[in-house]
Amino acid sequence: MTPTFFFEKILFNDGIKHNVRILTDTDGTITDIQPNATAALADEHINGITIPGFQNAHSHAFQYAMAGLAEIHDPSHRSDSFWTWRNAMYDLALSISPDDLEAIASMLYAEMLNAGYTNVAEFHYVHHDKDGQKYASLSEMGSRLIAAAQKTGMNITLVPIFYQKGGLGVPAVEGQKRFLSPDMESYLKLLESSKMDALSYKGANIGIGIHSMRGVDPEEIKRISEAGPQDLPFHIHISEQLKEVEDAIAYLGQRPVEWFAEHIKLSDRYHLVHATHLTKNEVLSLAETRANVVLCPTTEGNLGDGIFPLNQYHALNGQWSIGTDSHVSLDPLEELRLLDYGQRLTSHSRMTFAHKTGDSGLFAINQALISGRKAMNDYNETYFKVGSVLNAVTYNLSTPLLASSADSKLLSTLVYSASAKQAICTISRGKIVSKEGHHIHQSELTKGFINVIHALKTRL
């Protein structure tokens, strides 16, 4: 069977179109797009405003299991930061089995699909067993993430992460033993194993990644940038915390992005995650090389990271995408709003996303989509076209604000007033995987997830 979809309203690069029929093949690839069509011959009638599926360009799936748990504080301690949060994260990372990870990721990906994400870049660094020993299959844990994506219908870019050190010039600590590859050669074997696993699912591919400047020896970072695969997106955490910047200056004599831009031949295949603490010269170097940044506003706010200088970056035509990182929120519209509002609060200007088109909502959707696709190794800038896989999310147009909005006001009304709760249909690879906020396997996945969490005893 080759499904045919009829869309009441759907966003294309040149605007919202009405009454569009899209035909797909059995793999979900678009075979025909028919404007000004009738609904009569379609298998699925999709009523609402449909936009391309959101790209989640930064995820640590296992951390979904600890969302909210790090908010219980000892009142006698007056300080809690990223570094204390990290200890709680290590405790969880040391306790989960492959089966646990698959159940956690399956629930997470189902909830992402419910919220309108259809693609995820999984920044994956829990590689080894609980004793820090390699599994018989080097990429056992990564294969479970791919299995979770296949089970739920999520498109996944698995980014197995090279993690070697405990800090700049500092050995790794006990809490990091499941993450480690001693050298580039060991990491490339892990990457190759991950590549083989990705062949099992048409919705999977891989990227290459370094945990951070503090996580891998700088000479190894240069080596893998030059000698590693050149046809994969390259992901790295960088300049997230002030301590990281201070340590880099002390150890390297340069700030992290300053060093990275000088020693690595940057291009638009690079995706620098967070990049919170930058000088004007560092912002310029990223924009000039067309490197992308990946911003995770709800997690960055939750951890107290700081605010990326987005207005400076926009002035230089810098490109960015969004991610949910630790998954304290799974709503792409919330990520976009918080990203904008952080800039408005520091600049006292409301023009963060309106500086080019005048339509803040349209700009935000476009920016997150195009740069987000690059994070998945997809350089297609056309929203929907013949030959591409159909990934989309539809929002309910019967809600008062959306129902009363003309097409010219619809996208900004959506971004600034709606939420993931108004997503009524998510299509991934040409199949409806979520309806009215419930994944097609919601009950089964929820039961499995709750059983794992109860067994871990982390939420008791």
- Tell me the strand percentage band: 15-25%
| Main sheet characteristics | 9 strands, parallel
Number of domains: 2
CATH superfamily of the largest domain: Metal-dependent hydrolases
What value does the average pLDDT take? 95
Helix content: 25-40%
For the secondary structure, the number of strands is: 17
Head-to-tail CA distance between termini: 47 Å
Number of continuous helical runs:
15
So, CATH architecture of the largest domain? Answer: Alpha-Beta Barrel
Shape, principal axes of CA atoms: globular
Low-confidence parts, pLDDT < 50 over ≥5 residues?
none
The third-level CATH topology of the largest domain is TIM Barrel
Radius of gyration: 21 Å
CATH hierarchy, class of the largest domain: Alpha Beta
Structural class: alpha/beta
